[in-house]
Design goal:
This protein folds into two domains: 127 residues, Rossmann fold (3-Layer(aba) Sandwich), CATH 3.40.50.10860; 138 residues, NAD(P)-binding Rossmann-like Domain (Rossmann fold). 37% of the residues lie in helices and 20% in strands. Helix 5 crosses helix 6 and helix 5 packs across helix 9. The protein starts with a strand and ends with a helix. By secondary structure, it is of the alpha/beta class. The structure holds 2'-monophosphoadenosine-5'-diphosphate. The site of 2'-monophosphoadenosine-5'-diphosphate has 16 residues, from helix 6. 2'-monophosphoadenosine-5'-diphosphate (ATR) binds next to helix 6. Belongs to the shikimate dehydrogenase family. GO terms for molecular function: NADP binding; shikimate 3-dehydrogenase (NADP+) activity. One of its GO terms (biological process) is chorismate biosynthetic process. Keywords: Amino-acid biosynthesis, Aromatic amino acid biosynthesis, NADP, Oxidoreductase.
Length: 273
Amino acid sequence: NELYAVVGHPISHSKSPRIHSLFASETGEPVEYTAIQAPLDDFTGTVEHFFERGGKGLNVTVPFKEQAWHLAGHRTVRAQKAGAANTLYLDQEGVLVADNTDGVGLVRDLCRNHGVRLADARVLVLGAGGAVRGVLGPLLAEQPASLTIANRTVIKAEALVDLFAEDAGTTRLEACGFEQPEAAFDVIINGTSASLQGDLPPLRDSVIGPDTVVYDMMYSLTTTTFNQWALDHGATTVFDGLGMLVEQAAESFQAWRGVRPQTAPVIHELRTD
Ligand code: ATR
């Protein structure tokens, strides 16, 4: 079997080993996938050691995605813009390649699995950290009518607007604070980590209309804090990030193996665990 792993700190709760094992059985690919907890001060050593002993590919998670990006000798276009990498492998010449599959994972889950149309939609993205930067490119590629980035620290949202202006095409790309938007959006995507502190972004209730689709990039076995807030304020369609997690994994698996696994059975299996 060929060796793959996810590296993070902490790592024990990662679902990636289970997801990739399911992909391996489904496709028959000779993939063995483990979890590695890197010391906070030695991500680089951990990666080097993994590839020196013959490892084929890594997923990278919190808090090492930016370090993975810096470490690589080559970055895919989508990783370059994301400023962070969740996927590493060696190319033919042995150069460490960084890819980022989070954004395609989100768009696949939204559009393909849930049938949400982003083209011409009015989209509100909450947050302006690494997670949001990682998904803006693929979201803009769907050509929404507008994409509003709202963040607690507005200058960080403004910096993302500057960075992605060249990718916006005809999409109206704008930055603001949480309290500013008033009219209902077609799609609201939560990319903040506010709920980890038990907080909610202080949005106006009016941003949620009866047809608003709400997507929390977080996932949990029960309804996420953000999605519960949305349901309490009139949303009828809410999704969490489990599908995104499985879709980004499938995209990494394809980058490594050249084979695309089916995701629906895996999403179903994780959901019913
Ligand atoms: P990540 O990799 O999860 O994106 P990050 O880069 O630290 O992590 O970004 C965290 C995001 O969640 C930021 O948008 C942050 O807002 P600030 O830019 O104002 O810091 C947001 N966030 C974190 N805690 C929050 C809270 N309690 N309320 C609102 N937003 C919060």
